[in-house]
Each structure stands twice: as structure tokens, then as C-alpha cells.
Design brief:
- This protein has 329 residues and is mostly beta strands.
- Helices cover 12% and strands 32% of the residues.
- The chain has 6 helices and 26 strands.
- An 8-stranded mixed β-sheet has the order 2-3-4-9-5-8-7-6. It has a 7-stranded mixed β-sheet with strand order 13-14-23-17-22-19-18. It has a 6-stranded antiparallel β-sheet with strand order 1-11-10-24-25-12, with no helix packed on it.
- The longest helix is centred in the last third of the chain and has 10 residues.
Length: 329
């Protein structure tokens, strides 16, 4: 994460809504939404739509930018940007002209190679109202007249804010409970796993053709505590090799979680190092300490609308059990 980018980027203006709700061209694959704009030359790109993604408003893999021969640029006196491609009429990304410096940030190849061409980041998403309809596999940018479904449940989201009330950073904190204990997590539509052969066999996680899957994360210390308290909860040692062969992490299956009264489970959580979510890591950009991330393997049961301006997510689930007592955020 580049804090200097964040401070500069958050001051840039992007129109929050259009004249009407817009269904975004999207490919839905194993719990991930990929925005799929098409360039004027007919090339369709795949951007992971990631409420937990940072580093700029729109990110493009450097190798993809090179094949498209995009013009290098500078932004905030920093290299590593290109002038964005021209998209075909009606097949682009809404409000692309609001990007900082009218540039796209480049990200190096590495983790997630072959999964996407880039990321629609939290900074971009935070300027609108977005509905991630997982059962319908549909992503919508809502207009200013949007109203929540009467049956939907409001889930408060935590964000760090400036003295004037604007977002300091666009990463939403959401609370769940496990066995009656509350845990704060990043709401992360882009949380990604790459199950090993062992992981696929033992976990049964839906996997896309390129081997990637949606997941949720939990820190090593919490996973160890869960395992010690509940040795009957399945634990897979060699579960996920997103970081490469020889660096596989564990996964644990929790019987159920409670999310603002909804009961969902069982849920597999992929291990992440404590430092990744420490106050020197991701939590430095949150309104309080988080211990992991809530991703598409849980959210796939829901139609979820994130209203950033009102710091609220609205959830509707047709097949989730509703608990009699709502967990406290």
C-alpha cells in the first residue's frame, strides 16, 4: 500500500451517480465480480472489482499495459502510470474521466497472475452506491434515487474519516460473530484464494478455470485460538498456495458465522499472517483493528448494496437463517 497515493487520490472528484442505475458489464466467476470493459479496438479487459483493493482508482497490470502500448505518464510526481485506453461507447467503466490525473496506475505482475488484467479499487468504488447481487451474478452502480429493499437488513460499516466527515480511506470494516464472539473484518469482495490440490479435495471450494477462488481471511493467531478451542473444526495445513509453491497457508472451517442477524455456514477461512492485518499493515488504513477479511465465499449468499456515503451495507438473503438476536457491531 502506498499511503502517499491515498492522501492525494482521495481528494480527486468522481461523480457518484449517473442519471439512472447502470448494470456494469461483468463476468462472475467463483465468487468474484470482474468488470469487463471493451476498448475501442475491441479488446475486453477483466478488472477484479475489489472493495479491499488499493493503490489508485483503477489499476492495470504492467504486462497488460505493455501489450496495449499505452502511453507512460506521471501522477503526483510519481512514475508508474499510463494514459488509460479508450473504451468503446457504452462499454467502458462509468466516470473513467474522474481518475486522478486522468491516469491509470500500473501494478507489477506477481500474485494473482492470470486471474485478471487489473483492479477496480476501493477508491473508485467509494464514490458511488454499488449492488453486488451474488445470486443473480449482477453488478450495478445505483443512482441517487436508490432505496433499499424493505426486507434488507442494514449493516453498519466503519471507515476512518477526516474532521469534515469525508473518508480518510475507503476500506469498509464489518463485524461478524463466531460462537458469540465479535470479530472486526475488512469487507473484501476481492479476497482471493488459490486452493492447492489438497485444498480442493478437502474443502470443496468452487474454483474458476484459472484455479482461483473467493475466500475469507483470518489471522494466524485467531485461527490458532479457534483450533485450540474447537479441535473438531476441520483444519487443512496445505490449503492455499496463492503466494506460490512452498508457501502454502492453512484454512479452517467454522460451522457458522452471524452477520447482523443472518447465520451463514459452514465457512472456510484462509490463514493470513497477523502482521498483514496489524496496525502496521492493513489496520493502519481502517477505523480500528481488523483480524481478517470477509469475502465472496460468505457474500455469495447475499444481494449486497454498499452505500458508502451513509456508511452502510444493505443485505438481503433468501436462504440464510435469521437468528433471533442480532450480533453487535
Amino acid at each position: 500500500m502506498k499511503a502517499t497515493w491515498f492522501a492525494a487520490a482521495i481528494g480527486m472528484a468522481i461523480s457518484t451517480t449517473g442519471a439512472a442505475s447502470t448494470v456494469i458489464p461483468t463476468s462472475y466467476e467463483a465468487g468474484h465480480f470482474f468488470t469487463t470493459p471493451t476498448t475501442l479496438g475491441g479488446k475486453t479487459l477483466r478488472f477484479n472489482t475489489d472493495t479491499g483493493g488499493g493503490g489508485g482508482f483503477l489499476l492495470l497490470r504492467a504486462s497488460v499495459a505493455a501489450t496495449m502500448h499505452l502511453t507512460p505518464a506521471r501522477c503526483f510526481d510519481t512514475d508508474g502510470f499510463v494514459i488509460p485506453p479508450t473504451f468503446a461507447p457504452g462499454k467502458g467503466i462509468p466516470h473513467l474521466d474522474g481518475l486522478p490525473c486522468n491516469n491509470v496506475a500500473l501494478v507489477p505482475d506477481g500474485i494473482g497472475d492470470g486471474m485478471d488484467d487489473g483492479v477496480v479499487s476501493a477508491w473508485y468504488l467509494s464514490r458511488g452506491i454499488w449492488t453486488f447481487d451474488y445470486p443473480a451474478h449482477r453488478l450495478t452502480l445505483e443512482d441517487a434515487s436508490w432505496k433499499h429493499d424493505a426486507k434488507a437488513r442494514a449493516v453498519p460499516l466503519g471507515f476512518p474519516t477526516k474532521p469534515n466527515g469525508d473518508l480518510e480511506a475507503p476500506y469498509p470494516r464489518i463485524a461478524i460473530s463466531v460462537e458469540g464472539e465479535s470479530f472486526d473484518l475488512l469487507l473484501d469482495t476481492g479476497a482471493t484464494a488459490h486452493p492447492t490440490a489438497t485444498g480442493k479435495k478437502l474443502m470443496g471450494t468452487p474454483v474458476a478455470q484459472n484455479g482461483y477462488a473467493a475466500t475469507s481471511y483470518i489471522t494466524s493467531s485467531v485461527m490458532n485460538r479457534w483450533h485450540a478451542a474447537h479441535p473438531d473444526w476441520p483444519l487443512v495445513d496445505d490449503a492455499d498456495d496463492l503466494f506460490g509453491q512452498g508457501r502454502a497457508t492453512r484454512a479452517i472451517r467454522v460451522p457458522s458465522i452471524t452477520l447482523q442477524g443472518w447465520s451463514v455456514g459452514p465457512v472456510w477461512f484462509t490463514e493470513r499472517a497477523d502482521k498483514a492485518f496489524s496496525m502496521q499493515g492493513l489496520s493502519a488504513y481502517m477505523d480500528k483493528q481488523v483480524h481478517g477479511a470477509l469475502g465472496g465465499n460468505v457474500l455469495s449468499s447475499f444481494r449486497m448494496t454498499i452505500d458508502y456515503a451513509h456508511r452502510t451495507a444493505w443485505l438481503l438473503c433468501a436462504d440464510c437463517q435469521l437468528q433471533p438476536q442480532v450480533s453487535r457491531p
